[in-house]
Amino acid sequence: MSNTQPTLPAPMSKSVRFLRFRFVIASLSCILQIAFACSARETVDEKVRSVSSDIVVYGGTSGGVVAAVKAARLGKSVLLIEPTKFLGGLTTGGLGATDIGNKRAIGGISREFYRRIYAYYQQPERWMHETRAAYFKGRTVNSQNEDSMWTFEPHVASRIFQDMVQQANVTILYGERLDRANGVEKDGLSIQSITMESGLRVVGKVFIDASYEGDLMAGARVSYHVGRESNTLYGETINGLQVAKTIHHQFVKQVDPFRIPGDRSSGLLPNITMGPGGQDGDGDHRIQAYNFRMCTTDVPENKVDWPKPDGYDEKEYELLLRNFEAGDSRVPWAPIWMPNRKTDVNNNFAFSTDYIGKNYDYPEANYQRRAEIVADHVRYQQGLMWTLANHPRVPANIRELFQKNGLAKDEFVDNNHWPRQLYVREARRMVSDNVMSEKNCKRAEVVSDSVGMGAYNMDSHNTQRYVTPEGFARNEGDVQIATKPYPISRRSICPKKDECSNLLVPVCMSASHIAYGSIRMEPVFMVLGESASAIASLAIDHNQAVQSVPYEDLKKVLVESKQVLDFE
Question: Whole-angstrom Cα distance, residue 14 to residue 20?
């Protein structure tokens, strides 16, 4: 070992030390800013009270994720704000059986998502509880395009969305909710900033409300509607109250709805009203029922038994039990098989997972009331499944079926295996310069400014359960009418020109109740989210209102992105 002493540097002058100190402070400041801008964080540093971005996306639904990815790919700074701690909405929340109808209508990043699903399941190690060949035997889910796959497990959708946002370097804020009372600051027609309940102020050039509820849209004082319009408002035939056309998911036996059978004076069983409340075609406040799209399995080692929820009330299922006793032997659920012996479960028949009539308050409710409604839906649906598996008045063969099945143990592991997202089938719907209607879905009228396509049936779930004049239970509101693939107008995702100049609304977009029943599909929300970001980017580039972006410029971007604008 050398005994030579190290040579010490010469002392720095005061000016050099000062410059170095300033450099260190500046470097630390820069590092902190980069760390904030490039990482997904669940909470915001208390010292950071304001952030800014070119495009601000509120709501990490599937449409919001794609909007954010598109904005980043177009070279814009983008901030994606998600009030919960997970991305993807229903697409990662249990709805793995993709509803779209004609899949030729899906292009762009939305199609890319389903191609990534296909690529994921090409790998043999992804199949743990069955083989790929066994799953696809006899299925035609990919018959129209063999490079895409339209059924998937929830955790796979989550993984793919996470990959997409990370690859695009999207900045995400989790757990931040809009201050709905005072959180939207406008200067004339332009939103300047939005403020979260935490106090964080977010400044942007263009804002995209991709939430299922439309809270940002409402806060910006943009026109919207809740409920069913009358047929006369937009010249439709299947909007509003629908008694005669409600033939699906209907009672097929005469079931007594009174607390004491045959005694009208005894009152009604829970969640039933005395009459439909109007004539067919009348507008009202009612919205189609919500439920949870459960992920279930029949693999014993991956199955969790149905929980009996706190607050279970047998009376809530008395109508179900009487329906069985009246002779309706149909199994009241619709399990659609996903890979690895899992399902996406939907509502089916007269009394099922849809919690009919219990969501009317949800669209306009405050956060606390919404949480109460969600919890009530959890209690109802868990209680339903427990009843079907355990109640002695349920037919033995149906009890046996539900005892064989249960929640998938390896899904929603942070939420007791229960889906994290309530299926908000409709809430607020914007009223813009173009309201998509039944005429558009039937191609009786075809818009010339397409930003994507719809292709699913006009599909409304039941909105209420009532008593017929004869004294029996009946459901109302379920309508399923065929469509032809149709273009969706750019004007239907932009507010009225005189209401807001820098907001786009691809989820709570402008459509009548019955037209929204067709448009409200997850891949369509992705399509519209991508188109919304294309409009936002062009508006920023040319310093224009979103309504003023020339359609030919927009169409060029959409075509280059392989968006499908029409093919009829």
Answer: 10
How far is 495 from 214, CA to CA, in rounded Å? 12
**Using CB atoms within 10 A of its CB, is residue 339 exposed (0-12), middle (13-18) or buried (19+)?**
buried
Please list the residues that pair with 260 across neighbouring strands: 263
3-class secondary-structure state, position 426: coil
Residue 278's region, left for phi above 0, alpha for psi from -120 to 50, else beta, is left
> Is the pLDDT confidence value at 523 over 90?
yes
To the nearest whole number, what is the mean pLDDT of the chain? 92
* DSSP 3-state of 52: strand
Distance of CA 464 to the CA centre of its chain: 22
Q: Give me the residue label for tokens 């606390």.
A: 368
pTM for this predicted structure: 0.91
To 10 degrees, the CA torsion angle through 54, 60, 64, 67? 50
What secondary structure letter does DSSP report for 23? H
SS3 of 474-518? EEECCEEECCCCEEEEHHHCCCCCCCCCCEECCCCCCECHHHHHH
Q: Residue written as tokens 């696809």? A: 136
For 9, other C-beta atoms within 10 Å of its C-beta total: 6
- Three-state secondary structure call for residue 530: helix
CA–CA separation, 511 vs 264, rounded Å? 40
Strands 303-304, 224-225: parallel, antiparallel or unpaired by DSSP?
A: unpaired
Kindly report the backbone phi and psi dihedral angles of residue 488, in degrees, each rounded to the nearest multiple of 5, phi listed first. -110, 130
Q: Which token pair is 296?
A: 């279930």
Beta bridge partners of 196: 178
Other Cβ atoms less than 10 A from the Cβ of 181: the count is 9
Structure tokens given for 274: 């005395």
CA distance 511 to 234: 10
Q: Would you place residue 137 in the very low, low, confident or very high pLDDT band (cuts 50, 70, 90)?
A: confident
Rounded to the nearest 10°, the torsion over CA 40, 197, 418, 347 is -120
Per the structure block, which two tokens stand in for 333? 């659920």
Of 287, 565, 530, 277, the residue nearest 429 (C-alpha): 287
pLDDT in tens, 453-504: 999 999 999 999 999 999 999 999 999 999 999 999 999 999 999 999 999 9
- Asked if 431 contacts 498 with a C-beta cutoff of 8 angstroms, the reply is no
Distance CA 198, CA 477 (A): 40
Structure tokens at 49: 């009270």
- Assign 356 to helix, strand or coil: coil
**pLDDT at 7 > cutoff 80:** no
Residue 83 CA to residue 40 CA, distance in Å, equals 13
Cα distance between residue 401 and residue 396, in whole Å: 9
What whole-number distance in Å separates Cα of residue 16 and Cα of residue 493? 57
Joined tokens for residue 301: 């080692």
359 and 290 Cβ atoms separated by less than 8 Å: yes
Strands 503-504 and 201-209 turn out to be: parallel
Res 423 pLDDT > 90: yes
